[in-house]
Amino acid sequence: MGIEPFLQGQPLSVGLTGAERDAFTRTTGNLMQRGSVLALRIRDVDGRVVFDAANPDAPPGRPIFEPSVQTAAAQGMVSSLTQVDDDGFAAGPNSGLPVIETFVAVHSPANPSLVVGVVEISVPYEPIAMQRDQSLDRLRFAIVIGLGAVWLVLGIIVASVTRRVRRQSKRSEFMALHDTLTGLPNRALHADRVAAALASAGRLGTDVALVVVDLDRFKEVNDTLGHRNGDEFLRIVAARLTGALRPGDTVSRLGGDEFGIVLPGATPESVEGILRRLHEALGHEAELAGVAVSAEASMGYAMWPLDAETPETLLRRADLALFAAKTARSAIVRYHAGIDEFDPQRLSLIAELRRAITAGELILHYQPKVDATTGEVLAFEALVRWLHPVRGLVPPNDFIPIAESTGLIGPLTQWVVDSALAQLAEWSLTRPELSIAVNISARNLRDDLPGWIINRLANHRVKASQLVLEITETSFATDPVRATVLLEELHAAGVRVSLDDFGQGYTSLGSLGHLPVSELKIDRGFVVAMQHSPEDRAIVASVIELGHQLGLTVVAEGVETEEVFADLRLLGCDTVQGYLFSPPVPARDALALMDRVHVVV
Ligand code: C2E
Ligand code: MG
Ligand code: MG
After folding, report:
1. Which CATH class is domain 4-129?
2. Most buried in the list 245, 290, 344, 531, measured by CB within 10 Å?
3. Quick one: which atom of ligand 1 is closest to the CA of 523?
């Protein structure tokens, strides 16, 4: 750009014209002065220097062979990194400086494809290198900062993810080991706590009590107040249990309405007191959906190491004790050897019993209640049996307690009442004055009982006065107020109520007059024993006496011998029942029995 336009066309080898030299001196002088170019020479194609910007007025030199000139002439341009004085020219103060030496072909102004010479330019390398280094430094800096930022961001992400994962895994670990409803340890953690408590008690030489608590009427709360209130109720129970214990004790929720408690350091002497306190704490009324409710609970417990040596047996035995508490309807029961009859294997009976009720495996046997003076059969007591496909005929004492502790007693009693009334309806065709007695459990004393019974009587077209409900004295005593209300309703409808196994409980004789009962059934134990024991005879005598004064019919059950029968007649007993007359028999044998019993006596 600075050379070609000024060439006037004469060959370079003869030297420059004055005008050319002036033009070149002008265009290049500035560059040289500023130092942005260290050397600038124009050569002809033989390498002869025809213009040197460092010395503009010098005449053309000799031809010098310079390979770069030849290459630039052929290729248009060549450049290399070299030193100022590499090409043999005196370099003065710049000697040895690194430069970029570039050779560019110069073309003839008349014929642009003809190369007439070459311009040689040396540009100092240092500023370029510096610039390059600076931009490399900047690049490096940018990379370092960029990577640093990336690492920082990654670090923050990783840290927060780790934190979240850790928090989540802690949460899921907590959830795996705790009950979501109450926040208490669950069954799995409970087993761990038991094992840990035993290990540490082993070192300290102390005892551990393991308690299982089961709420008595939780199902009712759930059914009547709804599941949400049921849940709230469980939370209240959990809080009461936790609140009534010491910090070192553990309360866990084992499932449903069952809780487990570990009491490290408790002694056989102290534990009953603690449990009574728990029982009381649970019994305090709480308001739920505007209704005052209180929790009643059964508790079973076993002591380590006295009752069991390993955590597994301890857990199982506390469970057995609870089962015994439920069956015996006592609030607190400690494990003892005799309890093993409540082996959980019997629990499999529950599932079978549920099926048996609908599968027609239950049958009724009937035992006559005989008029003590005339020998007439007045009534039959319906007694349930289970015709088990494998076990054969199972007596009621083997499955009624299970039915009572599981709620199966409801459907069972309904089946018994329905079947007995159907049977009575059939017998009434020939024996219109015959009555039927059925046994009712304490657990059957629910508000819907009277309505249901009255409905069934109507359904079977049986008079209310033909039905006797036998309820044991002890089950009457569990909730006398409720029992009185319900039985009064039935009594008013004409249904008769008999107080079964009388003498076993402690019904205050004073209250007997106010109860809606029409019959007292003296417990078999006294009747069997009266033959040899004057005390038992005295009891039988006074029950008969008392019953009569209150206007009640008195029945003696368990009459096995003629002597006892004779004695009972002497004492004025109204009705008798027992093997002497007949054991309970299937329905098809009962009618024939009526005539025979009548004849025998
Ligand atoms: P319970 O109501 O006191 O019935 C009398 C029990 O004494 C019956 O036993 C009967 O077979 C037995 N027995 C009758 N006469 C004699 C005798 O002379 N000597 C002796 N040693 N025993 C005699 P079972 O049938 O095994 O019933 C036992 C208990 O099971 C009944 O006592 C009753 O409490 C209960 N039970 C039976 N059926 C039902 C039922 O349908 N529902 C309910 N809730 N309980 C029932
Ligand atoms: Mg009975
Ligand atoms: Mg009885």
Report:
1. alpha beta
2. 245
3. 3
